[in-house]
Design a protein that fits this description.
The chain is of the alpha/beta class. The chain has one domain: UDP N-Acetylglucosamine Acyltransferase, domain 1, CATH 2.160.10.10. 15% of the residues lie in helices and 34% in strands. It is built from one helix and 20 strands. Strands 1, 2, 4, 6, 8, 9, 11, 12, 14, 15, 17 and 18 form a twelve-stranded parallel sheet that branches. The longest helix is centred in the C-terminal third of the chain and has 29 residues. It is globular, with a radius of gyration of 16 Å. The mean pLDDT is 94.
Length: 191
Amino acid sequence: MTDYPDVTIIPFNGKTPVIHPSAFIAPGCRIIGDVEIGEDASIWYNCVIRADVNRIRIGARSNVQDGTVIHCDSPGDGTTRPQDGWPTIIGEDVLIGHMAMVHGCILHDRAFVGLGAIVMDGCVIEGDGMLAAGGLLSPGKTLPHRQLWAGRPAKYMRDLDDEAAVRLRGAADRYVHYAKAHKGAVKAAFE
């Protein structure tokens, strides 16, 4: 799954992480349980992705930047928590900034989670939606398509224009290239 040491990949409850061969998994990462990571995705240095009580999916070309923690929520009784719980589903071309916390939520294709932001159980960030750095999206909130939300708790700030959407898509493309460069450098360092 990786070509170098200092990455921990742990099967849990009969589920082993499935990582596309083109994905970049940086040293220091811990990936546990029912996790799937797509083509050209990148999981940067010292991230924890723990799918011990539900599933986590990370789509193609998405990037999870340094120090981020991704978890999910266990199944419930159907009254206080959904029977299926809250898996964490991350679409394609998603940007997740450094030191973010993403827990039991859905990030649609091209969603953006800023540096140090928190996305809690039952939340949805729609495509091209942006949670600003340091924002906290409280449980059950939906951040609509092409909106910017900020604050703790996060609130609507403004709509994003075409130029902002293009910039975000360009950043996702750049991270695919950065990941390939880092993958080569890390491999060379451990040879």
